[in-house]
Automatic annotation (TrEMBL):
Monomer. Pathway: Secondary metabolite metabolism; quinolate metabolism. Residues 5-327 form the Amidohydrolase-related domain. The keyword Zinc applies. It comes from Pseudonocardia eucalypti. This is 2-amino-3-carboxymuconate-6-semialdehyde decarboxylase. Gene3D superfamilies: Metal-dependent hydrolases. The keyword Transmembrane does not apply.
Length: 330
């Protein structure tokens, strides 16, 4: 029986200082031993608790949820893609080294993913190599760098390097557009975040990225791949009917199903069934977005309760697929 693996969780180092001269740079305001607030300059971004940095607390809550392993990725607000490359590389190094310290007491139950200065592919590749040698299990990247999406030449070069290094890549939406309409009801997270992930999958397909990177690239998209699975038919129709406008891929969009994975954090059995039906049962991995309030607790409850899954399929979603994504030893 494969271990139950949650591929989508986050961490924040306790006491993270302001490391940039940017007045909007993120830092951590510590309120107590158990509580803190992520600050964006002088603005409160998100209140967090000790399960963001305390490995022993995480393990207790993992046991409550029946999770054996967690992939522990950076919280995207700390990516620093808008900073000068050298500064972003310095921040990534500190953040990544602290990730190892946070995960070390877990006895191998917490698998750290690093962050890289994605705005500079050479620095990004160098930091990835350093982190893999130090014990990181893979890398989390944001779904864009400013106006550069995942089909940007520099990002494609980095993805090729990930494939050659055997590093799994977890893509997380971030830096969603803001406007008065999106400022209500957490709409940037409720509509903007799924749209960002969908847009980046379009960039991978219509931008020809899957035609340029090796099939050995292991890449997973957060939040169920956004709205991609629901609208794959519309994309396919557009590829045939308006090939003059969107024909950037060598093959129809549906041909690339199987080249990427998505996580399961969609909260509803019907949505999970859509992912399994459209993307394939072998391409959906357990994810929870732990420990944040919009995540799933207990982790994996929708997968465990989904009556349409066979026990073999449930095992794939709970851990078998993640074992392949992470190249875990048998």
């Amino acid at each position: 029986m494969a271990p139950v693996v949650d591929v989508h969780t986050h961490f924040v180092p306790r006491g993270w200082p302001r490391l940039s001269e940017d007045p909007e740079a993120p830092w951590l305001r510590v309120e107590s031993e158990r509580e803190a607030t992520i600050m964006a300059g002088s603005r409160e971004f998100r209140r967090i608790q000790a399960n963001c940095w305390d490995a022993h607390l995480r393990r207790r809550e993992m046991a409550e949820d029946g999770v054996d392993l967690q992939v522990v990725s950076p919280t995207p607000v700390f990516f620093s893609y808008d900073r000068p490359p050298a500064e972003a590389a310095r921040i990534a190094k500190i953040f990544n080294d602290l990730a190892l310290e946070i995960c070390e007491p877990s006895g191998g139950r917490l698998l750290p993913f690093c962050q890289v200065p994605l705005q500079d592919p050479d620095l990004a590749c160098a930091e990835l190599d350093r982190c893999l040698a130090a014990g990181h299990a893979g890398v989390e990247i944001g779904n864009h760098v400013g106006d550069h999406d995942l089909d940007d030449a520099g990002i494609v070069a980095f993805l090729r390097h990930c494939a050659s290094a055997g590093a799994p890549v977890f893509v997380h939406p971030w830096d969603m557009p803001d406007s008065p309409r999106l400022g209500r009801w957490m709409s940037r997270w409720l509509t903007g975040m799924p749209a960002e992930t969908h847009l980046s999958l379009l960039a991978m397909i219509l931008g020809g990225v899957f035609d340029q990177v090796p099939e050995s690239l292991r890449i997973c998209f957060a939040h169920g791949g956004g709205s991609f699975a629901f609208w794959l038919g519309r994309l396919e129709n557009a590829w045939y009917e308006r090939h003059d406008v969107i024909g950037g891929s060598a093959k129809p969009p549906s041909s690339y199903v199987g080249r990427f994975s998505v996580d399961s954090v969609v909260f509803d059995p019907s949505a999970l069934r859509l992912l399994v039906d459209v993307l394939g049962v072998e391409n959906v991995l357990l994810g929870s977005d732990y420990p944040y309030p919009l995540g799933e607790r207990p982790a994996g409850q929708v997968v465990r309760k989904a009556q349409f899954l066979t026990e073999e399929e449930r095992g794939l979603l709970l851990g078998g697929n993640a074992a392949r994504f992470l190249a875990l030893p048998a």
